[in-house]
Design brief:
With 88 residues, this protein is an alpha+beta fold. It has 2 helices and 2 strands, in the order ββαα.
Length: 88
Amino acid sequence: MQTGLRGRPRKLALMPPSELRYAQVVKHHWGGRLVCVERRQVFGHFENKAEISMTFVERNNLTMRQENHRLAGKTLGFCKKKSGLEDK
């Protein structure tokens, strides 16, 4: 995008889609025990904070870990060689 000024042209700002709903779940621990669960709204509109499901977040995290286990170093499926990645 031309700005009429010297130097590198500025890029357009990236904006999330309007239908995106993004939340953050933070677990607070004290002395090895779960004290409280805080739900934060980042993008989008939630009718109430109960819509932010801990179950969905944990399931999504597990799925991501399982799909990428060949690349993550602290998993049983870790591969050091390229041939191990191709065997999958």
